[in-house]
Amino acid sequence: MQSLVIVAHGSHLNPESAVPTHTHANTIRNTGVFEEVRTGFWKEEPSLREVLRTARGDDIYVVPLFISEGYFTEQVIPRELRLEGWDRELWDSDGISADTATLLASDIDTEVHYCGPVGTHEAMTDVLIRRAVSVTGDDELGEGFGFAVVGHGTERNENSAKAIEYHTERIRKTGRFDEVKALFMDEKPEVDDITAQFESRDIIVVPLFIADGFHTQEDIPEDMGLTEDYQNGYAVPATVEGHRIWYGGAVGTEALTAEVILERAADAGADIGDATAQMRQQTAPTTSTVGE
Fold first, then answer.
1. What is the pLDDT of residues 19-77, one digit of tens each?
2. SS3 241
3. Which band of pLDDT confidence, cut at 50, 70 and 90, is reported for residue 291?
4. Domain that holds residue 166
5. 183 and 148 in one domain?
6. Is 292 within the bounds of a domain?
7. Could you point out which of 109, 140, 215, 240 has its C-alpha 20 to 30 Å from the C-alpha of 154?
8. Residue 85 per-residue DSSP state
């Protein structure tokens, strides 16, 4: 029996924070490839400390719905799940290449396949592009468009920027968009200066965040000049200094993110059959209504 446990941050302050986690769990549940799909949170219930006690599978796959490797994936989650013998070196990662470590969860006396975060998996590149399609409603978009992948940026976790730059380079190599750049909230180049960073008239902006919240719904739209007050909303696209800005919101809310969760589990040995093909059909893009 296979069990999938999706672990995420959650929030006591933002009730929408957990929505993508539950949505992706339901999408995967509907494929039927796992006998059970559980969710656990750091800041909500069910808690990380308790979630494994609810898992009944012989093979348990834990996938962190986080963007980058760092404090939560390397310290908080292993500690709360009580994974014996955990050491970040087990992933043999350069900051973006974490894969799988199989460890005993002492609380339930069962081995657990602990996976790297969703945000650094190569399949997340496809989700970013899918998000661009969703926000524009154009399956063929690319020529004439710039693409900005936006991250928080922080000196406390250098891997945060690595994930942004990794996917930016992968999108650039597709040759699909005229310009592809990584921008940040707290590092240079900053998203505040987006119109100075691109020559393209049309710029797609997708934050590499799991859930929409303060940064993606308030800070970034205001910083880019889409609106003076996020509470008044903004157009998509919005015209700023002669550019049309197509703002997509947090990439983790894109339905195809569920496929990346599946891919992480598959890389750890889970049998997912043709679930990814099913998911591609289920999560076909629709035109975004952000800001309407």
1. 999 999 999 999 999 999 999 999 999 999 999 999 999 999 999 999 999 999 999 99
2. coil
3. very low
4. 124-253
5. yes
6. no
7. 240
8. T
Predicted TM-score (pTM) of the model is 0.93
Shared domain check, 94 and 167: no
How many domains are contained in the chain? 2
CA dihedral in degrees (118, 224, 148, 279; nearest 10)?
40
- What the block records as the tokens of 73 is 């994936």
Number of other residues whose CB lies within 10 A of the CB of residue 280: 13
Are the C-beta atoms of 15 and 56 separated by less than 8 Å? no
The neighbouring-strand residues paired with 41 are 8, 47
Q: What is the mean pLDDT of the chain?
A: 93
Cα–Cα distance, 217 to 65 (Å, whole number): 20
Class of residue 241 by CB neighbours under 10 A (exposed 0-12, middle 13-18, buried 19+): exposed
CA–CA distance, 166 with 143 (Å, rounded to integer): 22
